[in-house]
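I have a small job for you when you get a moment. Can you supply me with one protein entry, sequence and fold together? It will help me judge whether the discrete encoding reads sensibly. Write everything out right here, beneath this request:
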Amino acid sequence: MIKIGHKEIGKHAKPFIIAEMSGNHNQSLERALYLVDLAAEAGVDALKLQTYTPDTITLDVHTGEFFIQDDTNLWKGNSLYNLYKEAYTPWEWHEAIFNRAKEHGLLAFSSPFDETAVDFLETLNVPAYKIASFENVDIPLIRKVARTGKPIIISTGMATAAELDEAVRAAKAEGNHQIVLLKCTSTYPATPANSNLATIPHMRELFGTEIGLSDHTMGVGVSVAAVTLGATVIEKHFTTSRADGGVDSSFSMEPPELKMLVEETERAWQSLGRIQYGPTEAEKDSTKFRRSLYIGEDLKAGDILTEKNLRNVRPGLGLPTKYYDLVLGKSIKKDVKKGTPLCWELLL
């Protein structure tokens, strides 16, 4: 069991839901604060930002490999520098956003993208850190975060088992064992077919950590399925409305969908329960609606039970139907009325 702030993470706690704001504030602090309000209304556990500047994440170069030309890329036509300039959350906003989250009882933390971001976030006393998929091979960054002693959530997009092992070992080498790995597919949006959720239980067994899902698919189905496979953390991008635009809006959840995510993942978690055979306490009253053996005609003492006067019907207060062949041909001890449940005491 891992604890972030006052929230427990583990199979005995409901799924820990993280609402990822990313760049969906569209460079408006007012909109960012409104997104915090919407996340709180949806019932999530935590709000997450991303902490970088264009200059801490890339170079001010707008040609060659620094320019996105891939036709399948959501951000085609942008240089990396201009994309991050549009998407980043100004550092001077962080405190106001975190304070708004605190007012709502939400946990708030961030993904640092370099060591200066960790130093900055430490001044705000964040309760945890998230390592983004593209940074899960940045071992110096993971070590820096691990040394804070705070829980680390690591997205696993693109990482091989060996790379994840290296990341987990790096954190543990710094004395930090509070690690959550998030199964992640680093496409935007991702498809259910590319989600490979069967990895979740395997990853838990392989690394011995809590496992969750960073979900870039549309809808809630993949997240719900992840919970049934043991995911204890779910992270989703969210926005006010996809129609508002923004760097991540096309694969982000709208507020009603975010609320549905919270509700349906909790239902999925509740449904897991424990290994159970036989009626639960809630089912015991329903056993009377099973079929059982009843007297189908008025009978006199000494009458023989036949296929005509012995019925297999609801309710279930008579002998179980498995005894039907056994009792056929047996005599009745006393007079009985139609509708009497058959019991052993009525038989000679």
